[in-house]
Structure formats: structure tokens, C-alpha cells
Amino acid sequence: MNDQTMSRMKELVSVLNRASEAYYAQDTEIMSNFEYDRLYDELMQLEKETGVIIANSPTMHVGYEAVEELPKERHNQPMLSLAKTKSREELREWLNGKEALLSWKLDGLTIVLTYSEGRLVKAVTRGNGEVGEVVTNNAKVFRNVPLSIPFQGELTLRGEAVITYSEFEKINSRIEETEAKYKNPRNLCSGSVRQLNNEVTAARNVQFYAFSLVRAEGEEFHNSRAEQFAFLAQQGFDVVESKLVNPDTILDEITYFENQIPSYDIPSDGLVLIYEDIAYGQSLGRTAKFPRDAIAFKWADELRETTLREIEWSASRTGLINPVAIFEPVELEGTTVSRASVHNISIVRGLKLGIGDRITVYKANMIIPQIAENLTQSDSLEIPARCPVCGQPTQIRQMNDVQSLYCGNPDCGAKKIKAFTLFVSRDAMNVDGLSESTLEKFLARGFLHEYADVFRLDRYEQEITQMEGFGEKSYGNLMDSIETARNTTLPRIIYGLGIENVGVANAKLLCRYFQFSLEELRKATVEELGDIDGVGEVIATGIYDYFHDTERMEQLDHLLREVHIAQEKVDEGMQTLVGMSFVITGSLEHYENRNALKDEIEARGGKVTGSVTGKTTCLINNDTTSQSSKNKKAKELGIRIISEREFMEEYL
What we know:
Elements lengths: L2 H23 L7 H18 L21 E3 L9 E2 L2 H7 L5 E7 L2 E8 L2 E7 L5 E3 L2 H4 L15 E8 L2 H9 L11 H9 L4 H6 L3 E10 L8 H10 L7 E4 L4 H11 L7 E8 L2 H6 L10 E4 L6 E12 L4 E13 L2 E7 L3 H7 L6 E7 L3 E7 L19 E6 L2 E6 L5 H11 L12 H9 L16 H5 L6 H14 L1 E2 L1 H7 L7 H10 L4 H5 L3 H5 L6 H11 L2 H11 L3 E2 L15 E4 L9 H10 L3 E3 L8 E3 L8 H9 L2 E3 L1 H8 L1
Parallel strand pairs: 2-11, 19-20, 21-22, 21-23, 23-24
Antiparallel strand pairs: 1-6, 3-9, 3-10, 4-5, 4-7, 7-8, 10-11, 12-13, 12-15, 13-14, 13-18, 15-16, 17-18
């Protein structure tokens, strides 16, 4: 093996691991699935040719390490990836004359559910295949997971949590700003399932489809996978659609699944084939990464070659400028496409794009148009030095290895339109009758300069009633909607301000943490904000900067004079933990989860933070002798470590 080959292998390992970290741990993409598969296959071939596998090669580990925010748990059995093929004939040969179940390979987040005495007791994500994250509280609000089942023995099964395409589109349609929209259902599902607050999970309509029975205590299935699937269906689970196939029928059944793709609402990236004979499949054993009783089939992407006409740069509320490729129209999977998001500057540069380049395009999962490859690679595309809307200088900012383009002008017209659109949206001030196009007209006429001006539009009655599309009735309806919107809540106000990285959930979190006191929130330090569970340093800094901007605070004061904020009632007699700060870690016994204990503490005026500091009153951990980082930090600082029961006895 020459140095060049080894150098290439090291490069591939580094690139693929970075892409995996972005995809699994940060829910973002720095390269297309097509490109990842191509590089992965190249690495596997080089490893096969050389007999060398570099440490930390993605061919030797599964997924990526689970994030720190949720409790971790080791799986009883490793959850392996599947070997894959795009060849139908290879799939038929793999059967080796046997029967097998052919089913959808769903594209979401794999979950392991455990039931005991007929009740759901645990849900754990796949994580890195060895260790997953405990998401029991969130699984209980999946739209179709049974909380109790007829079977009373110990039951463990695996399945895929998914968000349908129709639900994905519905959620995105409620998000006004382009950069805030979710990129695909898989990323949305992953973020939804791994929430600390299951209210968010419940609102996303996550569904669960069982695809494997791990264990059913004392139950007999006569060595049949099909019987296992039937058993799971009898327990009330939605089971992934499957077909019993043999070498004579498999090609027709593949076609059956293929014909469903245009109308199939559940995200899928292929099919899975697993032997019907359980004992036979288990007798085949496994490799270091793959079981031998199953194989994945990935659809051969329909590629079309075309010419890149231009890159459209779309500015947004936060200043992010998104690149969208415009190319000569081509037919893909039965529809005509001419546009594809390129997502960010990193992908633009990785593809070495230039106007006039010959590119190949495909539909990811046969749905979302993507650029597969740049055949020309002229690398001549100029990144705009000025914003396409306001003409002011742009900036390239980098976060987590991803470079993105931003407009630095705070008065950019695109920012104003998108900012006002968010402000009047359903989850913010909820003002009916102010669409983005209407807001654009009002801004152009000088009716709107700051948020408070929305509530002063009655000054322009004569001008508005004479505008095209408006009349006395439309104007009256708008005024009624504005009057209704004056009565609002603090979380709606905070979300509507458009503070970067503060969505609906974070707005509610901030308000609860500061006991619905806007003044307390306004004077909070970066350290205090960063101590809030779920608010990191980047978000904390953004919030602090917003509330320490003189012009923004003047405008906020103007807004506050126009609205009436409903006050949350706080039972003063319950405020026994005021001034105290707690950190919670590990599993709980009395409370359903850490959020339930957190709500109890906050209802009594206390604070719950994510890290142990000198200001921490005590660390609550049922495993008081563990060597966890939080326990070690508490001991270093002389902070008491108490059990859940001790906390209840001393503080409640």
C-alpha cells in the first residue's frame, strides 16, 4: 500500500466522521446523502483492497455518541447497522433459496421500547448502537404508541419514530422565516424525540412503527418473523408494512413498494429484507458491524444531468442568506424540477460550483431535489460580497464546521419584513390579516418602523382603506384582530421579538425560569442565562446582547405601552425555595422524570440549572456515590449531594 492510498483513507475517515457528527449529534447536514454514500463506499473498497482499517473508521462504529442533555443507557444487545445493496438481483441471490420479510426502511429515529406488566416503562434511542438516550417521557406522547398492552410479560421491541411528510410540511408552513424551516422530516423527528420538554414532542405528532421484536417473555412464535409481526400488531402497535417473499416473488414485491413511493407519506430511504426463519438467520452470526440475517436495499437514485443557471441568494430575518441552485429543468421521479437548496457555503464550496457547470441532480429519498455531483467543478462561483436585498456588505460565519453567509446590516429590508412576519405570526402576537405581502406594502409606505407600530395602524385608516385589496370591511377586520392581539402573554412577546435561537419552547422556558418577570429577564447576566437547562452559551449571549441593545429596549418599552400582558399567578405560600438553586442528574424514582421535579422546584420559587457551580444549593442524584462529572464537581466545590428522597424530606 502506498502513502497516497493511506492518505486518502485518513482523509475519508475524517470527512465522513465530521459528516456523521453533524448529522447525528447536531441535526444538520454538511454534505448530501448521495455524497456520503459515495465516499463511504470508496473507503470500504480501499479497506477491502488494503486489508487495513484505520482506528475510528466509520465502517467500524455505528452512528455517533449520544448528546449529554438526556440520561444515557447501554443497550442489552448492540444495535447494528445493516449491510446494503442497490442491486435487485443481489437481493434475490442473498435469499439463498429462503423466505424472508421485505419491509420499508423508515427514515426517522430508531427507538427501543420496553413494557412490563402491560405498561410502557422505558424508551431509549439507538444512540451509537451501544449506548442510547432515555426518552421515555417523550415516547409516551407519540401519537400512536400504546401506553398499555394486553401482554403482561416483559416485552422489548424496536421501531422507528417518524414524522410524516404531510405533518412536516404543515409544521414548516407555520414558520415564516426561511432559515428557521426544518430541512427534512428526519432532522425534525430527531430533534422532536430528543426534547427535554415533552410538550414540544407532543405538538410534533411523532409516530412509531415497530419493525423488530427483541423479546417477549414466555411467548412462542414457531420460529417465524411473520408471527412476531402479527403478535406486535395484536398488542396495538403500528407495524411497518411487510411482504413475505421468496426468490420467485421478490422482484415483483420490490416493484410493489417502488410504485407506492409517490404517495407514501412516511419518510423511507429503502427496504429491509430479513429471513423469515429466525433460527436460520441467527445461525449465520454477525460481522463486526453487520448482522447476517438481514440486509438493506437502497433505491438506485435516478440521476439527471443538467446545467447550473444561477445561484439564488435568499435573505432572511436573522440575516442568513440561503443559496438555492437554479438549473435547466429535468424530469425526476415523475416530476419536473429546476431548483435545489444548497444549504450553506460549505456545501457550495465542497461542490466547487460555477455558473454553467454541468451537474447531476437527484431526489433524496425520491422526494427532495439535491445536487449529486458537479461534473465541471469550475469552482468559479462568487460568494456575494453584498446582500441581494439591501446591498450592504455580507459576512461568512462559521459554526460547527459549517460556513454560512449573513447580511450584517441591521436595517436590511429582508430582515424587517421577516421580523414583522414573525412578530404577527400565530405563536407570537397572532394578528390575522397581516400577511407577508401586506406587511411589505405597509413597510414600503412607512406605516411600520418598530413593533409597536402594528398597534398604531389606525392612524392610517384612510390610506389603508384605499389600498388595493383593502376596503372598509377588511380594515375593520384587521383592527379587530389587532385589538384582540393587545391582550397577550409574556412568552408570546418574547418569541415575537425574534431573538436569535429563541423559539416558542425557549420563550416559555425563559419566562418560567424568571417567574414571568420581564424585568428579571432583561437584567439577567450571560452566566445566569447559561445556567438554565437547555440554554447554552451561544443562546445565552444572544439573549443578553438583545436585552442590552439600547435601541431595541426603547422599542420594547414602546411596545409594552401598547399591550396588556396577562400575569401568571404565583402562590406566595408555596415559594419556599426562593433563592435556592438545584442541579438534577440521573434517574428518578418518585417523580416521573427530571422535568417533573424541575417543575416542582420552579413552582416553589427555586431554580434548576444544568451545571454545578458555587451558587448551587445542592445536587440531586439518587446515585450519591457515582463518579459522574457532576458529582466530582460538587465534591470539589463542597456542594451537598442528596438523594431524591432526602430532597423531598428536607425541602418539600
